Automatic annotation (TrEMBL):
Function: One of several proteins that assist in the late maturation steps of the functional core of the 30S ribosomal subunit. Associates with free 30S ribosomal subunits (but not with 30S subunits that are part of 70S ribosomes or polysomes). Required for efficient processing of 16S rRNA. May interact with the 5'-terminal helix region of 16S rRNA.
Subcellular localization(s) per the UniProt record: Cytoplasm
Subunit structure: Monomer. Binds 30S ribosomal subunits, but not 50S ribosomal subunits or 70S ribosomes.
Name under which the protein is recorded: Ribosome-binding factor A
Superkingdom of origin organism: Bacteria
Molecular function via GO: ribosomal small subunit binding
Organism: Candidatus Segetimicrobium genomatis
Gene3D superfamilies attached to this UniProt entry: 3.30.300.20
GO biological process terms held by the UniProt record: maturation of SSU-rRNA
Keyword presence, Transit peptide: no
One matching Pfam family: RBFA
GO cellular component: cytosol
Gene name for this UniProt entry: rbfA
């Protein structure tokens, strides 16, 4: 990836985030965080990945509202960023944060269950294999 494209991605991320937080007055938009922006090589399309806090219904409503606001976001970007062409904006739901939280919760549960099993077995509190001497 070129340095220019990387800088533009970061600039778009910052500006879209600011637009969504400060300029959008629609109450249907819940708590939205811009997690990443992918720009096409010709700068004609921008995928804006957003993380939305809430249940499935709130996420669906927020995504629909963001879809309707693509033109507004694009116009605001044109006012803030000087480029020959402002890319078409496509919002995509990013669920990686939720997946990470779920994986951490599962790992914590496995550690707790493993700790309980080790405390139930005599001499099981030692690290390593219970068959081998420590």
């Amino acid at each position: 990836m070129s340095v220019r494209l990387a800088r533009l991605r970061e600039l778009f991320k910052i500006e879209v985030s600011a637009i969504l937080q400060r300029e959008m007055k629609d109450p249907r938009i819940g708590f939205v965080s811009v997690t990443d922006v992918e720009l096409s090589m010709d700068l004609r399309h921008a995928k804006v990945f957003v993380s939305i806090l809430g249940d499935a219904a709130a996420k669906a409503e927020t995504m629909a509202t963001l879809g309707n606001a693509q033109g507004f976001v694009r116009r605001e970007l044109a006012r803030r960023i000087r480029l020959r062409f402002i890319p078409a904006i496509h919002f995509k739901l990013d669920e990686s944060i939720e997946r990470g939280v779920r994986v951490q919760r599962l790992l914590r549960r496995v550690i707790e269950v493993d700790g309980e099993r080790r405390s139930d077995v005599p001499g099981g509190d030692r690290r390593g294999d219970p068959q081998e001497p420590a």
